[in-house]
Design goal:
With 111 residues, this protein is an all-beta fold. Helices cover 0% and strands 42% of the residues. The strands form two sheets. A six-stranded antiparallel β-sheet has the order 1-2-3-10-5-8, with no helix packed on it. This is Cupin. It holds the Pfam family Cupin_7.
Length: 111
């Protein structure tokens, strides 16, 4: 076994077609169908209210966003248990997040 490194200069973001103004790069798959990824949201982007069938952990690297009624700025961390209603997520500035999801994304259904 060996360590795997992914320098920022080699990480290529892919646009998320479901949400204009978002792009991501998957860094690792810690469990089957799960992911550790970086997500960028351009200012004004809104991801609507939704749930996921797995637990999710989010760290705000830069920028500010509202998630529900909560203002989250750089350094903020939150945990969302599976099946929990979350959002909407609104980028008040350009935002970068690191998200760890412990299972599949599931069908992304608006509530």
């Amino acid at each position: 076994m060996t360590q795997i490194f992914k320098d920022a200069s080699t990480q290529e973001y892919t646009d998320l077609s479901a949400f204009l103004g978002t792009s991501w790069v998957v860094l690792a798959e810690p469990v089957s169908q799960g992911s550790i990824h970086r997500l960028k949201m351009k200012q004004g982007t809104i991801i609507p209210v939704h749930t996921h069938p797995s637990d999710e952990y989010v760290f705000v690297v830069s920028g500010s966003l509202k998630t529900g009624e909560r203002l989250c700025e750089a350094g903020c961390f939150w945990i969302t248990p599976k099946g929990t209603r979350q959002g909407p997520h609104e980028a008040l500035t350009d935002v970068e997040l690191i998200t760890i999801r412990l299972g599949e994304m599931g069908e992304f259904e608006n509530i």
